[in-house]
Design a protein that fits this description.
Number of helices: 8
Helix content: 40-55%
Shape: elongated
Strand content: 15-25%
Number of strands: 8
Radius of gyration: 28 Å
Largest sheet: 8 strands, mixed
Structural class: alpha+beta
Oligomer: single chain
């Protein structure tokens, strides 16, 4: 811009009569101004689209992992010595589906999991995935949080149960929705799987055990393993039915 101003002055000194060159300079100045505005507009659009892309990536992956990928770094698989995994599913989901149209089932799950997604933001937890009516969450990775992971999952689970009690199925308002919850603490390996639609996946017996805690649990209750019970007992502040390891 400073070079352009200097060039204008030099040309005006030569074309002191204010003739053709002066007119040409005026047009060039107007063009330069329009070009600057266009560049600013396009830059703003580019930044807006980049933010949308970043937000989408961060909705698919943990933020710390997404930041590494955006920086061009390879994210290697990592072992975590102890995390807590949550599983839940809808009690009688098959029966509810038989009374519903496919679009109604989709709307019900979207409404329910939108409520859960909002709740989870209050806790140090990461939603791993949903498969049908199953909902999976973990705490303690990819950013380690000491032994707080079991308490974070427990608090989140209690919050979910509170939400379920007031949840209404829009097309079956008379039907009471119930979920089973299971949680287990232990080691896992976590890493990125795939390049198209990459997923942050967890592997290990801890995942299978957490799933079994849920599948063998009771409606509207939280069943946990002895490992989770031990960590929560050290943390304190929870009432647990030790006979069946049910959190209330």
């Amino acid at each position: 811009r400073s070079i352009w101003i200097w060039y204008q002055r030099r040309v005006r000194e030569v074309d002191s009569s204010g003739g053709i060159v002066e007119n040409l300079l005026g047009r060039m100045e107007k063009y330069a101004s329009n070009l600057e505005e266009l560049v600013e507009e396009r830059t703003a659009q580019l930044q807006s689209e980049k933010k949308k892309t970043d937000d989408l990536l961060e909705s698919m992956l943990p933020k710390s992992v997404a930041d590494q990928l955006k920086s061009g770094h390879v994210v290697p698989p990592e072992k975590f010595e102890c995390v807590t995994i949550y599983f839940s599913d809808i009690v009688g989901f098959t029966a509810i589906s038989s009374l519903s149209k496919p679009m109604e089932v989709l709307d019900m799950l979207n409404d329910l999991y939108t409520v859960f997604d909002t709740c989870i933001e209050k806790y140090d937890c990461y939603k791993v995935e949903t498969i049908g009516d199953a909902y999976m969450v973990v705490s303690g990775l990819p950013v380690r949080n000491g032994n707080r992971h079991a308490a974070q999952i427990a608090l989140m689970s209690l919050d979910f149960l509170g939400c379920i009690k007031t949840f209404v199925i829009s097309h079956l308002p008379e039907k009471k929705l119930m979920i089973r919850i299971g949680m287990h603490s232990g080691p896992v390996v976590a890493g990125i799987v795939g390049k198209k639609m990459p997923r942050y996946c967890l592997f290990g017996d801890t995942v299978n055990t957490a799933s079994r805690m849920e599948s063998n649990g009771e409606a509207l209750k939280i069943q946990m393993s002895s490992q989770s019970y031990g960590i929560l007992s050290e943390h304190g502040g929870f009432e647990i039915d030790r006979g069946r390891d049910l959190l209330r």
